[in-house]
Amino acid sequence: MCAEKIAFEEKYEMYSGLIFRIALIFLKNRADAEDVVHDVFVKVLSNSKNFNEAEGEKAWIIKVTMNRCKNILKSFWKKKTDLLQSVIDIPVFSEEERSVIKEVAALSEKYKTVIYLHYIEGYKVSEISHMLHASPSAVKMRLARARKLLKSVMEDETHE
Fold first, then answer.
1. What is the mean pLDDT of residues 97-113?
2. Tens digit of pLDDT for each residue in 134-159?
3. What was the pLDDT predicted at 56?
4. Contact in structure between 81 and 87 (CB atoms under 8 Å)
5. Buried (b) or exposed (e) across 113-133, using 16+ Cβ within 10 A?
6. What local confidence, expressed as pLDDT, does residue 37 receive?
7. Among 117, 116, 136, 134, which Cα is nearest to 126's?
8. Percentage of the chain surpassing pLDDT 90?
9. Domains of the chain, with CATH numbers?
10. Is the pLDDT of residue 59 over 80?
11. Which of 29, 84, 88, 94 has the most neighbouring CB atoms within 10 Å?
């Protein structure tokens, strides 16, 4: 096998799950999430950037993934169709995780993005602010508002 093919396979193994999870949270649809994985890796193959460290590459891949998801959500097809979109049948998550993921997925894009990057991927506020081109205080505010929204929804569900 050639070195480029091995390098690509390693990247696929390393990042495909990450890309799929991000896309699933944004798009709430397994088929669309799988399409995003494909699209992002086409972009990875055509990328001429050389990253000095894995974190730089990972941040770039996350950004490409989120942009692809945004493009899909803006598309005519997505706006005009009301497909049954659910993460219930995804075996990757436990029942409790599915419940939380559903609530995160229901948040507006700006809130679900910071929640995902901070709590799932473990990025610091400063790193998220750089990735999203937002001030650290804006990221902190989005996190606080998102947590408040999630807490409110989760409390409502337990009182029912």
1. 80
2. 899 999 999 999 999 888 887 776 66
3. 82
4. no
5. bbbbbbeeeebebebbbebbe
6. 95
7. 136
8. 26
9. 1-89 (1.10.1740), 93-160 (1.10.10.10)
10. yes
11. 29
- Residues 3-58: tens digit of each pLDDT: 666 677 888 898 999 999 999 888 888 888 999 999 999 988 887 677 777 778 88
Query: Nearest CA to 113 among 156, 73, 75?
Result: 73
d(CA 40, CA 64): 7
* Residue carrying the six token digits 């399409």: 35
- 3-class SS string, the chain: CCHHHHHHHHHHHHHHHHHHHHHHHHHCCHHHHHHHHHHHHHHHHHCCCCCCCHHHHHHHHHHHHHHHHHHHHHCHHHHHCCCCCCCCCCCCCCHHHHHHHHHHHHCCHHHHHHHHHHHHCCCCHHHHHHHHCCCHHHHHHHHHHHHHHHHHHHHHHHHC
Q: Which residues contact 28 (CB under 8 A, 6 or more apart)?
A: 85, 86, 87, 105
Q: Are 132 and 160 in contact (CB under 8 A)?
A: no
Cβ atoms 64, 43 nearer than 8 A: yes
